[in-house]
Recover the amino acids of this structure.
């Protein structure tokens, strides 16, 4: 096993819960509208949810929906607890999603929800950043998982949503194809897999629902390479003994 693989395994010790927010999903495992839970309990380190965990079936949506079933099943295979939330148009949804996301290590957001051009996603990110800032920061990966290809505009809109004082205090900035910070936040942009051809330069950023959980674990491993490198090194030393 190489060192990068050890880093990813180390990331699994830290990233155990994920919330996916998308207004257009297929069946299985979604929580809709006012049914969004107040919070998500974080399991003990090293714990994994069994693949036979029950999920609540939801009626299918039309169009080109997120495959929630594939996403949840693959997450469980990786020992990652995943909830798919389908937001309503109510004013309370931002507060509810942000509350539910407090204990989520990974938060994945669609950019276009109810055709709002990123408004809901930006508000959720701002609320998460506000809450994390008050608690001193934490390791958290936010992914914009979308069909919208204009990454630069998305990142600019997210930064604009955050107060300048917050950006300066925590060093929130665009760097290396992501938004990074000095207090544990990392925001990445990934493209949904569709039948529409894309520019070859975007190929590395296009991910299917089935491959999304593993890709997000890899992105989480980049979140704090220093910390996870130390854990991976300790794992290698332990194995050597």
């Amino acid at each position: 096993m190489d060192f990068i693989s050890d880093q990813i395994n180390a990331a699994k010790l830290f990233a155990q819960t994920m919330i996916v927010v998308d207004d257009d999903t297929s069946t299985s495992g979604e929580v809709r509208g006012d049914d969004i839970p107040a919070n998500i309990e974080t399991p003990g380190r090293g714990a994994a949810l069994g693949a036979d965990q029950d999920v609540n079936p939801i009626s299918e949506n039309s169009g080109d929906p997120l495959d929630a079933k594939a996403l949840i099943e693959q997450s469980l295979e990786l020992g990652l607890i995943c909830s798919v939330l389908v937001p309503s148009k109510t004013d309370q949804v931002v507060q509810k999603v942000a509350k539910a996301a407090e204990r989520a290590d990974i938060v994945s957001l669609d950019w276009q929800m109810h055709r709002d051009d990123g408004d809901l996603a930006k508000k959720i990110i701002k609320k998460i950043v506000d809450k994390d800032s008050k608690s001193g920061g934490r390791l958290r990966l936010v992914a914009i998982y979308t069909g919208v290809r204009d990454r630069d505009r998305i990142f600019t809109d997210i930064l604009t949503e955050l107060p300048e004082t917050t950006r300066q205090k925590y060093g929130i900035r665009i760097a290396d194809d992501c938004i990074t910070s000095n207090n544990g936040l990392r925001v990445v942009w990934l493209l949904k897999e569709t039948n529409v051809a894309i520019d070859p330069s975007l190929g590395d950023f296009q991910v299917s629902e089935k491959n999304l959980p593993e890709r997000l674990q890899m992105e989480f491993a980049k979140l704090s390479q220093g910390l996870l490198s130390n854990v991976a090194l300790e794992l290698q030393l332990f194995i050597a003994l």
